[in-house]
Amino acid sequence: xxxxxxxxxxxxxxxxxxxxxxxxxxxxxxxxxxxxxxxxxxxxxxxxxxxxxxxxxxxxxxxxxxxxxxxxxxxxxxxxxxxxxxxxxxxxxxxxxxxxxxxxxxxxxxxxxxxxxxxxxxxxxxxxxxxxxxxxxxxxxxxxxxxxxxxxxxxxxxxxxxxxxxxxxxxxxxxxxxxxxxxxxxxxxxxxxxxxxxxxxxxxxxxxxxxxxxxxxxxxxxxxxxxxxxxxxxxxxxxxxxxxxxxxxxxxxxxxxxxxxxxxxxxxxxxxxxxxxxxxxxxxxxxxxxxxxxxxxxxxxxxxxxxxxxxxxxxxxxxxxxxxxxxxxxxxxxxxxxxxxxxxxxxxxxxxxxxxxxxxxxxxxxxxxxxxxxxxxxxxxxxxxxxxxxxxxxxxxxxxxxxxxxxxxxxxxxxxxxxxxxxxxxxxxxxxxxxxxxxxxxxxxxxxxxxxxxxxxxxxxxxxxxxxxxxxxxxxxxxxxxxxxxxxxxxxxxxxxxxxxxxxxxxxxxxxxxxxxxxxxxxxxxxxxxxxxxxxxxxxxxxxxxxxxxxxxxxxxxxxxxxxxxxxxxxxxxxxxxxxxxxxxxxxxxxxxxxxxxxxxxxxxxxxxxxxxxxxxxxxxxxxxxxxxxxxxxxxxxxxxxxxxxxxxxxxxxxxxxxxxxxxxxxxxxxxxxxxxxxxxxxxxxxxxxxxxxxxxxxxxxxxxxxxxxxxxxxxxxxxxxxxxxxxxxxxxxxxxxxxxxxxxxxxxxxxxxxxxxxxxxxxxxxxxxxxxxxxxxxxxxxxxxxxxxxxxxxxxxxxxxxxxxxxxxxxxxxxxxxxxxxxxxxxxxxxxxxxxxxxxxxxxxxxxxxxxxxxxxxxxxxxxxxxxxxxxxxxxxxxxxxxxxxxxxxxxxxxxxxxxxxxxxxxxxxxxxxxxxxxxxxxxxxxxxxxxxxxxxxxxxxxxxxxxxxxxxxxxxxxxxxxxxxxxxxxxxxxxxxxxxxxxxxxxxxxxxxxxxxxxxxxxxxxxxxxxxxxxxxxxxxxxxxxxxxxxxxxxxxxxxxxxxxxxxxxxxxxxxxxxxxxxxxxxxxxxxxxxxxxxxxxxxxxxxxxxxxxxxxxxxxxxxxxxxxxxxxxxxxxxxxxxxxxxxxxxxxxxxxxxxxxxxxxxxxxxxxxxxxxxxxxxxxxxxxxxxxxxxxxxxxxxxxxxxxxxxxxxxxxxxxxxxxxxxxxxxxxxxxxxxxxxxxxxxxxxxxxxxxxxxxxxxxxxxxxxxxxxxxxxxxxxxxxxxxxxxxx
Length: 1276
Prior knowledge:
The protein is mainly beta. About 5% of the residues lie in helices and about 45% in strands. Strands 2, 5, 6, 9, 10 and 11 form a six-stranded mixed sheet that branches. Strands 12, 14, 17, 18 and 19 form a five-stranded mixed sheet that branches.
């Protein structure tokens, strides 16, 4: 028998080895619904309840068991190993097409009666699948046993354990400790709760005494909390506990310092002894606990003998008293040591940990689908501690007792199948178990036979791009596995090899598709059960390419950017062109323009910056190209200005650069404002290179500065930064000399000494004044001086033109400044007493002559010689009848020497002149010299007075002119030159001469399109005069319009301006350029304009001055005049015009209506007032105080009418000063009752009300009150 057993084992090993050499491959069934619908399959459990299944007794019980298979499985249950007849129990139902049980207790019954072990069986014609064995238990939450707890009395410093002992529940409850105020018991290193729920005191303090230590148990399933009777803890102390004593600040671990409590070495409260052991299962978490007693409170430390704690899985809790290791594995076995120590001593406890393992899978058996005559195997490998045993079952029965199958062989944990046959499908179960648990796995073996089927669409059309690798899919299925072949155009041998490759899944690869590869491809699949084919049509298309890609652009904000994207593609494919910005879809709004080959962005903004991508796509391929748009703009203002390193005359200014907006900052302009001399006015201080951000500013004394910085790049200046903090420099004496010192006479016998006052930044201190000193030159006099706050001082009785030495210095409250150099000044000049003699002329020409004279004695000039001044005038023309202008003109000569002379120019030819000469100093002219007469010679004539060219008919031109206004001699005739003009080509010059009495000429044209240029001049004996040039007019007797631009107007706003102009260019196709210059730094920018005015010029700086012109894009020489304008300062939206507010308008309407009503009442009372007839009321008794008039009427007056009016003024004699206002203008006649019912009190009351209204409105809107001020007297 032993020999036979050894032979059987040897044969099994040989069989397993042979099977390993064979190819074992299960059939992968496609998920195609058509295949799955026809696929017969044994049952598979897909859903089941937990092995350890605890249910809530308040709910119905649901035990899940779901399975799939074809045909649909039927279900059967076992309870406690016996058949469970579901139909006999009215409380139990099974769901349709499912094995899930529902146990209902609506009509009574106890859930506890259904506790036990349940197992589900799912069966169809091909086998039976089993669920796990599910242990059903009902959750329990028992009450806490009633007990009387005696008070716990303990000495201070002793250890204590308050036991919890919660009632056993299913599952076990969570425990926690609270007091009577429902607040958790405070826990720390000294006081903490153990894993068993007990409350441990390492040592007791006097403050622990309380009557409400209560343990609570929370039951999760029932969501209830049960409370144990509270403990009363009494602490016996030798000294009273004082929480505010001086030693309360000592470390809490040494709370007994200063008290007579003995210190003790540590001892363990749990676990007891020096060693213990613990077993834990693999995959669970392990909790080790050590709680020690002692005074002071011991600290806990953990170690592992022979190794280190696994830091990735280890976590200490409960103030280091608990060691938690997650997901324990075999390597976590070993000896763990906890050590408790305080300053008195230490103690250790060793815990031996042994890790066991319930079975776990190494290789779980998988479903096996085989074709007839194929081989296969099922493997079930599991591990555990101790090692689990393996048991095979077939359809829920042990394999040993199942029907024998010759194609099946069991070898330990493996079942080997050889040459399987149809009808041997079954479900196999593998059960791996040891003392800690079990594993159960179902795996079916399905023997499948099926004729070939095509799974893909019929007659599919595939489009591919030329030269691309192409795959033609032909998904198929069959059992046994069919053989697949490909053919092209229905003929030839199968395709495989070369540029073709056929994959196992039926796909045909064409490595590089060409135009000749187009056609119809057929795939054929066949096995022993049949044959099937499918066709695929292939079309090869031209690739899509971008032939002109967008290029990187760098543009200025406000200008135009355009990206190109020209495409070449297969015309048989629809094309889509999309643009993205920074990989996000680009919304083509009204501002962006997209056409077939480009994207245009007008008026570029900062937000337009980014990477633009043009993507061209068809259904087969796509191409894309990207380009970066960089927007240049003025830089952002600098920020975070700081002042440091202060000194008397300097301070360091530091700032942070703002964004340069893609244009490097080239310069920083530092400005300052001071609040003493010119508050609110910002002035330039200094400029610095753009790479600096910290500079030392040179400052003036006695100035309260604040600074701001402006960044400048190639586009322009930034907005100013926020001002820096103020910096006050100390005062000092002036350090500059007053400039422009001079002394000169302004009146007879005086000399005014003047100089330029120091600038505000040069004063250096308060109370600036000047000390001016003077003395007469070369007279050995002492210096005289005076102190003044003005910039001049007048010296009287200084003589006539006397030289003086003068000097000046500035001083302030801090002292005097440097003294100026000595300057020579002169007192006032007198009138010259002599005239030049021997005045004569020579070398007389047509327009000039030489003048000669004898110099005067210098002493007669009475001052500094300024010039010899000639007074001359044209007395008459040598031509009779020509009227002349006899205006006297002057010309000065500075000639010196014994025989001075000069040339008198700009004379009119052929005229009689007179002249005389005077000597001139800086204040006066002297007496005239003798009068000299002379005649100028004949010259060339002036230009003709007018020259007109008219075109009377299409074949002639008529010319008219008039003699010059200044003939400058005797006219002898006119010369007319003319030539043809055709664009830039001109003809030969022709000439005509005319006598002086001929002033017109008619020229016949060779054809109507001929144009001429005419040149006309008059002649004297001297020669021809200035030429008058004209062009011949166009056809129809109208002159050709000269292109021009005029009437340029600008309406500025804060950051833009509306610009308009007029022109006579063609309206279609004319382009203009707006050129504007920022005056602050001379930056010039140009904006092209392709549409007609008006236009909006954007991107301007608030509050800046500009110069603007418009010129033609085609003819730069044709330009408008320059126009200067200034943009408005930034408008604050918070400013509201009160006159436009609804409440104000309503208030004004209410006031007007009230005044109108009061006036109507006043007029009605007035018309009824005065004297009222009472004849019709004779029967009424009269009051004794009533006063009767002669006409039988009574004057109704109130006593109050005789009293002073409220607000009236009383004179010195006690009489009331009445108002000057009169109501005559409002009455019906010439007189008014002096005391009408609408009396002064009424009127003055209305005036006072109107005044109050006006005062209120004045506080809100001054312009609105103006109208009310003029309206009030009318209404009142």
